[in-house]
Amino acid sequence: MPSRIVTLTVNDQDVEFLAKPGTTLLTALREHLGLTGAKRGCAQGGCGACTVIVDDRPVPSCLIPLETIDGSAVRTVEGLAADGELSPLQQAFVDGFATQCGYCTAGMLMSATALLEERPNATREDVIRAISGNVCRCTGYAAIVDAVLMAADAQRTGDARLVAAE
Amino acid sequence: MSSRHVEIDGSYFADEREADFFAIGTPAPRTDARGHVTGQTQFFEDVSYPRLTHLAMHRSARHHARIRSLDVAPALATPGVLRVLTHADVPNNWYTILRLIGVEPDDEPVLAEEKVRYLGEPICAVVAETEAAAREGASRIVVEYEDLEPVLDVEEALKPDAPIVNERHGHNYFTYEGHDCRRIRFGDVEKGFAESDRIFKFTYQSSPIEHAPVETTGCIVKPEADGRLKIHTDTQACYFTLDNTALMIGTPFNKLRVIGGTVGGGFGGKVDVMVEPVACLAAMATNRPVKYVYSRAEEMQVSSARAAERITIEDGVTNDGRILARKVRMLVDSGAYSRHSPYGTTKAAAHMPGPYTIPNVWVDAYCVYTNRTPSSAMRGFGVTIADFALESQLDRIARELGIDPLVMRLKNAYRDGDMKAHRKIVEGAALVEVMQRAAELVGHELPEHYRTMSSMSGEGL
Question: Of A62, B145, B344, B348, which has the fewest Cβ atoms less than 10 A away?
Fold first, then answer.
């Protein structure tokens, strides 16, 4: 099968790939765009470290052949603080000690970002379900869930630092 | 945020402190958090180089076999394959990871030579233009095996007629100063048993445990114009990796530059030097950058696990719960090679009395070789499984005697000044106080006598 041209919007920028059949979105992001925030933990959709948002849905980018998402809008962790200002969710992860080794962090953030966009009033159960495909082996789940709920609060009140300082 | 803030309880040992502590208990921001949440933290695999090549390993399909022949021609004929490396390409193929601190003998080959001793043991490395070509090439290598009887159980391994797993040892155990096990001899256990009211003997067993870091083990090696090799790695032990790699590939230490320090989960699983030496040799052979990273399957199957252990504890106790004698036989499954297990076994032996003062102790801790995946470091290795065994033992004895398990522990808890079985004097124990406070926090009622005892004196004993 020949390569084909695939057009995407990645973090609000239009990009074009000459994609060989079977090229994954993860490979395209990491090796062609240099967006290395999404990680390859298992390459089989089992760990969630490669999670990005495609058309508002969190997906494991290691399982997405590029040619199947032509024309889609992709968001990665690098796009969350595009203007240099951390998003409430990123700020909550920093303030709430929700990172340890950092390898699962990007995937956690993307799953949680998609959740809070869909459900600004997400409950603890919603958060746990949303990150159930994201493995953290430093076992920092409690801090991560707390941070997501803290960010949801902050987004509702409009000031992340106010909430973080409580 | 309050849940992350730890209050220091200043009421204990108040007169022991010389200064007011303020750093402990005060949250401080993590310096790496901003990099983590913005995706800017650089892990080894985030580095890329033009003309990067990829290394994949052909691994043993047997637990225990002689290698009759090895045909690498089909790999070399695979499109994209550049080189195949075997043991003959490794300048110093035999090593043991702890030789840096004087542990002997060198019992493990970088690439298998004549024999394979565990399923998944590396035999030859295929270097190719793409990851897919490297894996394809590796899968086409043909190894002809002469099967040998595998040894898969630690008790079987110690039988006199068991097949020898590792000829470098000559028997299936590590030798400690002329003994077949790490020994502890303290007091007179037989006398202790004779003075005891009851004897309890139980056996505990654990399986190997894989660390399963989300980032698999790997490295990228880049040959530099000045002849040095730049190694981007997720090792937990940069200098350990540098020194061991230099010894294996026969190069001066200053020819290697290790760039690490960012580890996507380690837990002890990234202190063995498994990928860097072969990747360095591949980079030297091709004069191109090389990436060697474990697949998830490799991480699960061949990276070192926490050792499986089998521990039998025999305790002689009085009816009121004082332990007078403990005899332990412990078998630590090192797998086919030593790695960090001889050290872990020593630690386990010293730990077997636990945080308890037992006047008579006898420990035989064997570091045993089997045809299983080598075990090595993992969070508190040697101590963790020992703790599971000895604390389970205390609970079972307390139940049998009808004693509160916490009271049983307080009765036996070591105090400052006590002599431990491995001849270290206890200092700064605080064990009694920690248990008292824990009991209070969970609302566990202790008799007055046990609420007032102290680890600073024998008071209350």
Answer: B145
